[in-house]
Amino acid sequence: MLSQLTDAFARKFYYLRLSITDVCNFRCTYCLPEGYQPSGAPTKRFLSLDEIRRVSRAFAALGTEKVRLTGGEPSLRRDFVEILAAIRENPSIKTLAVTTNGYRLARDVAVWRDAGLTALNVSVDSLDARQFHAITGQDKFHQVMAGIDAAFDCGFAKVKVNTVLMRDVNDHQLNAFLHWIKDRPIQLRFIELMETGEGRALFARHHLPGTVIRDKLLAQGWQLAPRGRSDGPAQVFRHDDYQGEIGLIMPYEKDFCLSCNRLRVSAVGNLHLCLFGEQGIPLRDLLAEDSQMDDLAQRIAGGLSLKKQTHFLHDGNSGITQNLSFIGG
Ligand code: SAM
Ligand code: SF4
């Protein structure tokens, strides 16, 4: 199906990142160093299963082919399996992915796959168990690693791993990470640390430009692969000696936003046109009844005309984004 979601800069949007909760059980230093803090607003409820079903149906009708569930930690939702099944009710959504900290994988990944999950990103910031604990606040390195093994065992041919490399924290592990993917079909995605409202001091101390990693990869014989439509802004590198591959996500790189292919819906049902944008367009009033579907699709498509050409991170402007758990990274 042709995407009906096209913006003023001729970018087409096939990909929805849907946050289903802000809550997280980890305390990553660059995201929620104090852990999840409830907002205190008793009225703040996350999208219900039925609301998620409707939002995914509207996006599917507009040509969306891929949905990624994120958060917070999406697998904390008790109805996570039902959410997967509800999204897979849309035959045009071919890829259903989740980004997870991995703590539930070993136990549940096979069930998720049976419910319709087709792709998996697991966040792993260190291959050293003690450092993993220090970065995430959770002593769960071995549990997460067992989870990745379980994903392969239950039939995922490839797993993506997200790693935020930080200067003077875990950047010395680059070669250990490369060694790890030598014989494993893992796409290791190095995400450049992004500045958020709450993370300014950490950013100033530990930001490592993605270009530094790219130069090291090129020097070791890695080669940039041609971009696939679903790659989005990632630059993918391959090497004949490695089964795994590298994806570099460099939001500070010139032209990063040219290949933007994703829209976001927050856990309270606001459409965000950019990870670092402003308030978001409320959709929730149109999620109560199936009969509102046309109005919902119209609001989503109409909202897209407001999408800006680029973010303003270069100017130290991270919009309303205080941390990435709020809108799903
Ligand atoms: N809890 C899940 C997880 O950690 O995979 C999903 C949500 S998390 C916000 C999604 C991704 O955003 C993770 O891979 C995390 O490493 C990344 N992330 C969070 N804060 C970031 C920041 N300030 N800069 C770069 N990446 C960040
Ligand atoms: Fe939780 Fe993911 Fe943020 Fe870590 S990056 S605190 S796991 S939401």
What does this structure look like?
- It is a single chain.
- The protein has 329 residues and is α/β, with parallel strands linked by helices.
- It has a single domain, classed as Aldolase class I (TIM Barrel, Alpha-Beta Barrel).
- Helix content is 27%, strand content 16%.
- It contains nine helices and twelve strands.
- The protein has a twelve-stranded mixed beta sheet, with helices on one face.
- Helix 6 links the parallel strand 5 and strand 6.
- Helix 1 packs parallel to helix 2.
- Iron/sulfur cluster binds next to loops.
Q: Report on the biggest sheet.
A: 12 strands, mixed
How many β strands by DSSP? 12
Task: Give the overall shape, derived from the CA principal axes.
Answer: globular
CA gyration radius, whole angstroms? 19 Å
Keywords: 4Fe-4S, GTP-binding, Iron, Iron-sulfur, Lyase, Metal-binding, Molybdenum cofactor biosynthesis, Nucleotide-binding, S-adenosyl-L-methionine
Protein name: GTP 3',8-cyclase
Binding site for [4Fe-4S] cluster 2: 257, 260, 274
Function: Catalyzes the cyclization of GTP to (8S)-3',8-cyclo-7,8-dihydroguanosine 5'-triphosphate.
